[in-house]
Structure formats: C-alpha cells, structure tokens
C-alpha cells in the first residue's frame, strides 16, 4: 500500500495551530478579553476604548479598533484625537454611572462619533484646544442618553444604534451655529482631488465607508475595510455592498464621490446583513433593499450624521414575516447588543457556501 498520499501526522497539528493563531486576532478576540479582565484598570480601559472605536462599525475587536484609529490619524490627527477623547470620556462616564462593564466597548462608540464629528463640523482650524471642553461634556452625556433610549427600545427588543450621537451632535450644532464666537459650526465639503470619473466612482466605495467616521480619504476608508475584514469578512462585504448601493441614485457627482451618499447605506447593510438577522440569502437580499431604502432616506435631506441609517434600519427590524429564513436575533440572546459575528474566516466561508447552495437548490426546484 502506497503511503505517499497519506497525510503526515504533523499536518494536522500544524493546521490546528494555524487556525488557533488566526482565531486569536479575528472575531471578537474572546481570549484577549478574558485576559484583560484580570489586568490593571489601565489595560482594561485601553481595551474598552479600541473596542468602542470599532463598535461604530458593529465590530467588537480591539485590533480592528487600532487599525481604525490609525486610519483616523491618517485622515486628520486632530479629528482622531477628539474621537479618542470622546470614546474615553463616554466610557469613563458609563463606569461612574455603574453601567455593565462586560459590554464596556458599547459605552464608547457614540462618544467616538460625537468627538470626531464635533471636530469635523467645527469652523475653527485644527488644534483649537477649547473645543475639547464641549467634546468632553457631550461625550459624557452619551451613556445617559443611551441608557434612557435603551429603556424605551428594550420594550420592542430594538437596538439604539447611533441615536445618542445624532441627538447630541444636532443639539450642539443647534446651540452654537455658524455665528458662535467660540464654537462656530460649518458643514465641511470634502475636496475632490481625483480627475478620472471611473476612478472616482471606484474609490467612492471605501470613501463611503470612511465617511462613517467623517473621513473623506480613500486610504483611510481602505484601512477601515481592512479592520472590518480582520474581525468579520461578512461585515466587510456588506459594508462595501452598502456603500456601493448609495451610488444607485442620481445624486450630484460631488456628493457621490465624497461618500456622503454611501456611509448610511453601508451601516444599514451591515446591520441587516448578519448582525441583527440570521444570515441567509433572503436576509442578504433584505440588507441590499434596506441599503437602497436608506439611500432614498438620505435624499430627503435629513439632518447630518446617521439619521437615515437609524430610521431605515429600525423600520426593517420591525417588519414581520412568516418566512423562517428571515429570523431576527433577539438582543438578549446575542453575545453583545451590537455584535453577532463569526469567529474565523473558515466559519464565514462555510456559512456563505451553505446558504448559497440552499438558494440554488430552491431555484432548481422551481425550474423543474
């Protein structure tokens, strides 16, 4: 008997070690989280901050948070500093209020957006240090508003998404305005540096993902997509698909190329496509429809921030269906209210393959 084709005894352990090593850095890095719980408060706070930065994109991975933070510094160091300060202030405020530490990353993501977008919307130049004061105050209110909204949304088992961020930033803009002597607000329109139409159209997909954090650089958007891929290929794929869906409407080219029509659709596509619904080919199509619907909501000229994403996604989470494949996940049963993700790339590929084959079999039955 020829043993040349027999697998060696070393291949199995080597392959197992490889997947174990990959599992340490992908998914939600559960082992890292358990290790951090036994460390000093400074290390725990660092882990919570980077998880909070990543939770904006429904990702619960500190390494992804580090990559996203690098992309923010690549875009604008002043904006990134304000985002990190907002995350820190919001997280510490939640701890002082005695909120659950097991989901500490969830206490920071609204603070990330509050701090980041307050710097983006400021008419003052970078390194205007007085801006840190309203940044800290508004970020400190994030867990207060989040807790109040959660008390209402929990009756329907709904997430609050980025509603606290939307409310607080809009309140700040309304209270200051363009004529405020210390904190004037303007709407920044990202400048276009590219000349080729098709190149602009291609780069608008990563730019749309980056605009979730207020970044208009394709390099920053690409690094954010890499961070999503590290944690969950499913989330990364739906982020690109949702951002591309924002190109479907006949919006002004300047707005399309700057990603302003893609970031809300990207978040909606992620939320429906495998985070709050069990991932099947039916819910995948539902995610695409939600992304397109969100693009139409953007066309209504709603206030800045992520109002179109919140409203359109909440509508799709409240739909009723007798189709068993369209099954909404209860927040209380998820690993965290913002995340339900696959731990490894292999599991993700198997899940996609399973439901693609199931969809093809259904189509074949109808043809017969």
TrEMBL record:
InterPro entries, sorted: Ammonium/urea_transptr (IPR029020), Urea_transporter (IPR004937)
Annotated catalysed reactions: urea(in) = urea(out)
Membrane topology recorded in Swiss-Prot or TrEMBL: Multi-pass membrane protein
Gene Ontology annotations for the cellular component aspect, listed alphabetically: plasma membrane
Pfam families membership: UT
Superkingdom: Eukaryota
Subcellular localization, as worded in the UniProt entry: Cell membrane
Membrane-traversing stretches: 78-97, 127-149, 196-213, 219-249, 261-279, 285-318
Mitochondrion recorded as keyword: no
Site, as annotated: Important for channel permeability: 306
A GO molecular-function annotation: urea transmembrane transporter activity
Keyword terms of this UniProt record: Cell membrane, Membrane, Transmembrane, Transmembrane helix, Transport
UniProt family annotation: Belongs to the urea transporter family.
Name of the molecule in the record: Urea transporter
Native species: Labrus bergylta (ballan wrasse)
Lineage: Eukaryota, Metazoa, Chordata, Craniata, Vertebrata
